[in-house]
Amino acid sequence: MFEKILVANRGEIAVRIIRACKELRVSTVAVYSDADRSSLHVSMADEAFHIGPPAPGESYLVMEKIIDAAKRSRAEAIHPGYGFLSENAAFAGMCESEGIVFIGPTAQSIRLMGDKITARKIALKAKVPLVPGTDGAVTDVEAGGAAKKIGYPVMIKASAGGGGKGMRLVRKAKEFSAALGMARSEAHGAFGDDSVYIEKYIERPRHIEIQVIGDSHGKVLHLFERECSIQRRHQKVIEEAPSGFISAKTRKQMGEMALRLAKAVKYRGAGTVEFIMDQKENFYFLEMNTRVQVEHPVTEMVTGLDIVKWMIRTAAGQKLPFKQSDIKMNGHSIECRIYAEVPEQNFMPAPGRVEYIRAPSGPGIRNDSSVYSGFEVTPHYDPMISKLIVWAGDRTEAIDKMRAALDEYIVLGVKTNIGFLTRLFKEAEFGRAEIDTGYIERHPELLKAQLADLEPALAAAALGMRNATREVEEPAAQTRSNWKSFARRLAVSRSQAL
Ligand code: MV4
């Protein structure tokens, strides 16, 4: 095992990784920008290195600065978390050539899966089901004919894409050439590469992904699926494990297909194979993410495996000591992402000082966060406050636990999506797992502002009470109950107002 790991990230995932390191008795090195001087990951790590101004392009994304901090601290390995440098093949390669272990797959695996056309070719060769489409990139001359052959509606996708960038849905032949031009220029702008391919469009798809983990001795296992269909503008909002929808047979097939793909690139570490599923439970490979994902906790809750610890152990060369049939799924887990944002204003970020935060707790509740009372959510980074995760015996119980947990969640000082999430978990359709990637767009009633409007006033009132009792850290029990009754008088207890 390593003695020291550098965590090349910030926020809740940096905290999550530091916790895993502590459990493994590995010492930790944090890196931080000017905006993160008072961040939790900095105080939790054994050492911390300042790496520059708030802009990621001048700090968290500068490979040389991260490598330099690793060398100066004599860290043997770097955990990249998600985002930032986590899927940057050049960075993984730089670690490899500097003799630092990149906690993730090889630079080669990242490179192969990073190019969506190459990934499609690998899937094709491994006999993993693919959305009907072109074998590779298309020229302007070929494109129209290819679309006609596939049959409308089709999707034009950027080869260098992923996460929805450079993607265009085309319903009719006469709209095709304009869409092709737009997809190319968007792809060129975003990735400096305008090559595109074409796929059949899958109507009302569900997004289901399989977690995999491999060691460096050729063993690759899967940890079943996560359902991530509740999204808005390619940003996941709710994730769950298992899916509330698929049969045992489909689950088994998806796991086998994910393993075929991972084995084809001799995958090491944690990865996710994304599939798109139609309303008839046909599924097709979309892309592979070669990092730990935001939503990994739901898989941890149902399998009992610590994914981050296994990433570290496999990167250190340890063997996975269990076999596929040892991995079982138990109960149901749901995660939702708590954001400082205004859902009713197109999910506009709402950075600012979190004056007071109290996360729910209790049996089956997990809150992965790096935010504390007094923390400043900066406009420089993703405004996620926390990931609230629940576990219960079945899906219905998990939804009920999530509703109760959200009702208990207090965040004062910034606007949040807690009201929006509460409404979502109360929808009967969601309860019946009748969900697909267009769910939020089809439910505009979720976006009607209610409690959110009153929150600033409530924050002021609650803080006034807190200051009156000269409580610095947390309102005393007496104050808290005053706050509760005050909230009730205003009819803004979440369960009443929503
Ligand atoms: C699709 C699709 C329908 N048909 N491909 C969006 C992100 C990127 N990873 C792939 N995406 C999609 N690809 C075909 N052939 C619909 C989507 C899609 C989507 C996929 C997963 C999760 C959310 C989504 C939201 C809109 C569209």
What does this structure look like?
The chain has about 500 residues and is α+β, with helices and mostly antiparallel strands. The chain has 4 domains: about 5-105, Rossmann fold; about 130-200, ATP-grasp fold, A domain (Dna Ligase, domain 1); about 205-450, D-amino Acid Aminotransferase, Chain A, domain 1 (2-Layer Sandwich); about 455-495. It contains 18 helices and 22 strands. An 8-stranded antiparallel β-sheet has the order 13-12-9-10-11-14-21-19, with helices on both faces. A 5-stranded parallel β-sheet has the order 3-2-1-4-5, with helices on both faces. The protein has a 3-stranded antiparallel β-sheet with strand order 7-6-8, with helices on one face. α4 packs antiparallel against α5 (about 105-115) and α12 runs antiparallel to α13 (about 420-425). It is globular, with a radius of gyration of 23 Å. The model is unreliable at about 470-480 and about 485-498 (pLDDT under 50). Bound molecules: ligand MV4.
> How would you sum up the global shape?
globular
Overall CATH class of the largest domain = Alpha Beta
Indicate the low-confidence ranges by residue numbers.
468-478, 487-498
Distance between the termini: 50 Å
Helix/strand class: alpha+beta
| CATH superfamily caption of the largest domain | ATP-grasp fold, B domain
Bound molecules: ligand MV4
Mean pLDDT rating: 90
- What percentage of the residues does DSSP assign to strands (E)? 15-25%
CATH topology of the largest domain: D-amino Acid Aminotransferase, Chain A, domain 1
Rg computed from alpha carbons, rounded to a whole number of angstroms: 23 Å
- Quick one: how many beta strands? 22
Mind describing the biggest β-sheet? 8 strands, antiparallel
Total discrete domains: 4
Task: Name the CATH architecture of the largest domain.
Answer: 2-Layer Sandwich
- Percent range of helical residues: 25-40%
Helical element count? 18
